[in-house]
Design brief:
3-stranded antiparallel beta sheet; globular; 7 strands
Amino acid sequence: MVNLAKKVEELWESRVYKCFKTEAFIGIKFRKYLAPEGGYRIRLSQWESLDEALRNFFMNKVKQQNDWIYFRGYGYYALDEVVHRKNIVLDNQKAIAVLSNRWKEYQRCFSIVKKLDDSELSLADYFAVISFLEWIWNDYSSITWISLQMNNEAYENKLMEDVDKLASVIIDCTFGYILNSDRDYEQQFNTLAEIFCNEKWQYIYDGLIGYLGHHEGYVFRSMREGDQLWMVLVNCEIKLIPWIKKNHFKKVLLLNNAFGAINTGYLLKHMCDIRVDVINIYASVHEEEMNRYATSYNSYLKEFPDSYDYVVIIDDSIFTGRSVKKIKQIYSRVTDAIACLVLTYDVATYFNHPEEMNYDNDPLKSVLEVEGEVRRMEGLLTPARSYWAYKKAVTIDSSDNEYEKNIRGSDLLIRILWRRFEEEIKDEHN
């Protein structure tokens, strides 16, 4: 994994250096601009010289920490209970209001994407434009999570039409921008104009209100381990696309396993040159065992819309492989041509938390089976390890036990976010 990550870094550094003026990277490696939790960050000096329209949009959305400006501020994750203390009660109606207000901002500002036409665009401005699209994508992911539970096929399909369009814009503005020198983003601007018409939000809003008006308990989510564009692009380029070409597939189906990989397949689709269909499912044995949700692993599995050369389960990470195995079992009556593409690979649970490996067969055998599953595409693991089980359990002796538990726990993503937003989390009562 380390060698693969190094090769990926060298490849993308050379591409970005070619795309932008190399002077922008003097004294700092390209990867330093990638925030460890996902998204992008820039130096404070770069923020101060950022394009005015971009600064205005992000003024109340970024997070400054030391000499860095993070484009994903607290609001990016705040719809998720994971970044709040347990005694904070979140409200579905307030979450809808937040999404509604942000939608109006996106509607006013989506012309930002046309800044990509500027041949003199700075690296910092580019990161800001992509971050703008990431905020939109993240909100759509939160809304999609609700639509997945509605059992309203027409509503979800309508929503997915716009997710598909948004995914095409994101791929054009990231993978396409870096690799192609001929740039004209009028089409992407027009696509965003279609998405952000008033009728679209009213349709989404009515559906959310209609469903959540009689739903007990808070249901929104916004934090997912698979929320890192570079991981999506890299895994598609070095694993999925070569595997498709080698096997001469003409038609594949991608199953996005929510919540960690919700909608991700739509991004992958627009990097492939064959027919790719995409649907969202939810099947997490781990979350079921934690009793995180009242639904079982097969509650949000769907019928295939067609027949396919192969089916690929997309997930943010893989731990014991039991979720993948159960998905395969359920769909075995349709096909046994099912593989999985995970964005990260858990290499630490076996060593740091073996007590969580509570399945029937030998733990080491299970680890090797999972590794084999991950290597099915091109014999490769993933360019990044999972955030899970980064360290052994520690004894917490503190007056603020909840905060210390999160910043010193074994889930690296939660540790990062609780440290990053310490002020916001601790001051929320005020």
